[in-house]
Amino acid sequence: MRLQIAAALALSAAPLAAQVADSSPFRPLGLPTPTAVRTGSGKPGAGYWQQRVDYRIRATLDTVTGTLIGRETIHYVNRSPDTLPYLWMHVEQNICAPGNLTSMLDQPPLVFLGTAFDFSCTVAGGGLVLESLTSLGRPLAHTVYGTTMRVDLARPLAPGMAMDINAAWRFKVPAFGSGRMGHDGSLYEFGQWYPRMAVYDDVKGWNHEPYIGAGEFYLEYGAFDVAVTVPANFIVAATGVLRNPLEVLTATQRARLARARTSDSAIAIITKDEAGVRGRTRPAGPATFTWRFTADSVRDFAFAAAPNFQWDASGWQGIYIHTFYRPTATLWHEANAIVHDAVRFYSQQWYHYPYPHISSIEGPVEGMEYPMMTFDPAGPTRVDLQWVLAHELGHQWLPMVVGSNERLYPWMDEGFNTFIDLANAARYFTGTPYGDSIEVHPLHLYADHAVPGLEQPMITRPVESRDLFWTGYQKPALMLQQLRYEVLGQERFDPAFREYLRAWAFKHPTPADFIRVMRDQSGMDLDWFFRGWIYTTARLDQAIDSVRTPSDSLTEIYLSNRGTMVMPLVIELQMVDTDGTPNGRFTRLPADMWNLGPRFTFRHRGHEKVTKVTVDPNEAMPDIDRGNNLWAR
Do 99 and 205 sit in the same domain of this protein? Predict the structure, then answer.
């Protein structure tokens, strides 16, 4: 009989236990099973692999016809354990092609507050003209699907093998199109400008999400050897190191650059008076010049060209800081100092800048990042200029160094970058109203953007995000601020975040890798935290239900978690001592207080009389109802 009763109790308890486990906010996240490629600690394992792609590109800018003409050789190395019968490539200039997905959708510009990115790319004859695609002199069978292209191989590419792909192409340069490239008069900015390989990884295989506009990049790392031929009066700025300065720069410019390398303050390489005057900025020579650049351990290449650039340069620890701008950009006299300061801050705070230079280019693109290069607007105010320069610079760390998949997870680059930008802006403008308030900006945006029924989870793809400004930028920044200040503390968060950057530098992390690194390094299980912030639209509502005093030496404060988000709780007690002296007490309770459910009793033991209780007294958390955060006797 006892055995039967015990068995019956076990059977009846089993569904209840499963129900409790399934509903617990502390249940484990359903992350992928760790492997030798991606370990349980969130770091790359002994079996980690990624493909390598090297590019040799020769391009000519024809400003008469408004055409960019290119020839390239792609050296593709299959480091995966898989035999590849076909390859996938991105041909993103086809965003401008008639009949492409973006043209058919005809979506309105992507708006971020007052900034709009227009991907309509309305240009006559738009789209990439692929003149040839060959390997070993033989045509490669290929099929174009909008902004992607499948290449079928005559012989599958085995593990450890490599092949060269040769492509010839051209396209009309839009006056201002595809959101991130084009020209403004004689100033040209080129991003997404050459056919390039898609990523093949251990998570999804081929990552061939189409380029619609909202999703940016996910690319393989490798080396670039790029030569750009432009009219002789043009100055070119690009990813990589300039390899032929004797041919394209004057002796005066080379001497000024040598001084700038060790100068904390900007030195004018091309002054305002010299800008646009060929006799003062260009060597004597033919009608065109070819500028050659090389770069390694980068996943993309961009360049800009104009005949009327001003050019300032300075140096920090051997790193060149370049700023190129037109004389009409009157705020840019401070641009070099802004970028110089931010390079130092990000390097010292998080991860040392690994490249030989950073070049910031003023132009029509409202803000875009590439390895060693950013495109930035002129800026209506000094505050706006500092923000866009430092934000686009911050992308050198995320995702240029830590190469996450922006086509799927913009919060891992835009959001993480916004997080480091906020601290940098607060420091740069410290002592001003803007500097003293900018870090709490995402918290103040919460009520307007985290609207029930409208808000989407951060894990939402960018092309599906109705409020990308929130899900991709501000909410993930707020998430990291909450993790740093309210959950872990800086002493645990900062080393863990640095380790994430170090472990995944020049590699491809996933959300699971980030979550596991932060757990492993901080020593705290954080599944409950990331579930609420990343995978749901959970909302926080911490409350005081009641206060009772069962004895002269005990006050019981009944707290509840009325929302769907779990967070630690900060409580402030205001009290009066037995002699009438007022005093106060702050207590920070960890999220473990909710282990047994959404109610918790906080016990204050002492003879003081509690006169007031406040939850989250500094209003540091996104609590949706502060009306229940206060009790007063």
Answer: yes
**How many domains does the chain contain in total?**
3
Identify the residue with better confidence: 141 or 101.
141
Read off the pLDDT of residues 337-395 as tens digits, 9 standing for 90 and up. Answer: 999 999 999 999 999 999 999 999 999 888 999 999 999 999 999 999 999 999 999 99
**Nearest by Cα to 541 from 419, 450, 604:** 450
* 604 and 582 within one domain: yes
Alpha-helical (H) ranges within 429-489 are 433-437, 441-449, 468, 475-481
> Nearest CA to 110 among 478, 535, 536, 472?
472
If we measure between CA atoms, which residue out of 446, 481, 483, 437 comes closest to residue 467? 446
214 and 127 part of one domain: yes
Q: Check whether residue 528 and residue 563 sit in a common domain.
A: no
Quickly list H helices, 203-331.
245-248, 251-260, 278-281
Using alpha carbons, select from 423, 533, 518 the residue that is nearest to residue 470.
533
Same domain, 198 and 156: yes
| pLDDT over 70 (residue 114) | no
Residues with Cβ within 8 Å of residue 19, at least 6 apart in sequence? none
User: What span, in angstroms and rounded, lies between the C-alpha atoms of 154 and 135?
Assistant: 10
Q: Does a structural domain hold residue 437?
A: yes
* Cα 182 from Cα 193, distance rounded (Å): 10
* Lookup: tokens for 399: 């995702």
Q: How many CB atoms lie within 10 A of CB 497?
A: 26
- Shared domain for 465 and 580, answered yes or no, is no
For residues 86 and 159, give the distance between their C-alpha atoms in angstroms, rounded to a whole number. 13
When the pLDDT of each residue in the chain is averaged and rounded to a whole number, the result is 93
- Span 210-227, pLDDT tens digits: 888 777 889 999 999 999
The beta strand positions in 523-632, using DSSP E, are 542-551, 554-561, 569-576, 582-589, 599-605, 609-615, 630-632
What one-letter code names the amino acid at 90?
H
**Before 81, cis peptide (omega within 30)?**
no
